[in-house]
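batch job 7 of whatever, protein = Gamma-glutamyl phosphate reductase
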Amino acid sequence: MTNNTEKKVIPAKDASIKLASINTLLKNRGLEAMAQALEKNKNSIIKANRKDLESAEKLKEQGKISQALVDRLKVTDNKIDGMIAGIRDVMELEDPTGKTLSCLELDEGLELYQVSCPIGLIGVIFESRPDVVPQIMSLCLKSGNATIFKGGSEALNSNRTIFNILKNALEETGDIPAKAFQLMETREEVMDILALDSYIDLLIPRGSNAFVKFIQDNTRIPVLGHADGICHVYVDSEADIEKAIGVCYDSKVQYPAVCNAMETLLVNSDIANRFLPGMIEKFVKAGVEVRLDEKTYTIAENTGIQGLKKASEEDWSTEYNDLILSVKMVDSINEAMYHINRYGSHHTDCIVTENKEKRRIFTELVDSSSVMVNASTRFADGFRYGKGAEVGISTNKIHARGPVGMEGLLIYKYILLGNGDRVSDYAGNNAKQFTHRKLDKQISDII
């Protein structure tokens, strides 16, 4: 364990206690200061990012990183505007802490409240994407959680610049314990973080499937995230072809370097001859490398489309994060759902159909954190889901699932309000009886 890690983690843990009690007004004042600071420092952010991009291009030429990672790394004026908008969206969200989730009368004058509260100290370990820093810092601030950030070395200058701008803005308000937010920068600190289960309450990894799996396999700290983003669109025999072309194209081409982009297209055999030729031609014109199973390859080959490839078994379980798409023909919705549940990553999957019963079956039986009907898989996003921003997308089945906003950064505690009550009064022959009556009361009205 390096001294540098402990010097950051322990003060952050201590500051998390104070941060948990900060009121909404002060939180929003801090968020506004963060937004204004990003606006004032756009040039310095882009300048720092340019250094990272120059280094990343050299690494890409050496085959050490992918084009997808370079794309995620880039910060533009528009991206900074998006960061600012995300922070201000979080300001508009209701403060989720201190809310009464339930109130139960155990007996007259003895009331049990279930109250939302922050998790504590969150560790965020991410690759590329410097916009993760303002996204998660804003959500953690609003939800009262302290945060340790560890970005990838490819974004060192960008992360450092953005983090310092935001942290300085919080310090200048004088309202927020700035030590609640810390930045780690070395590879050694990653392993240190994974071992600090006595201080860090939750880890959120953002990056490649290999990266996330490494985090999951090497820590005792609970991990929120997903290892793969293998997303499907199934075009049913009763699909509207125009809708299907639009949904499929957007799901793959709009931004292919992200986890909610389509990787496999499944097409019902009854519609394949009417749908596939135009769809594949549109993909090829957009620069997509299309990999087809035997049946879809035959259809595409007969149209004279050039540059086609045959899919392998490995393609069905591959997350490309690039302009590459695998295509398979299926004979029924049941075959489509079987393929998705077998090869998918339970992230985001879509059906395009006009049949109401098939919509119901698909949404009930596809075991994914987001299921789309006649809509692009790219909608699976915290901002688009109205969460202001997201801390990540989780395929877990406990705690939080899908695009996770502030609700994934909360837990609850029980508060029992009594008046000298004793358990011994509820034991023995003349014991008092519990009423266990639900009450419509708020803890904020009592204490």
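notes: The chain is about 40% helix and 20% strand.
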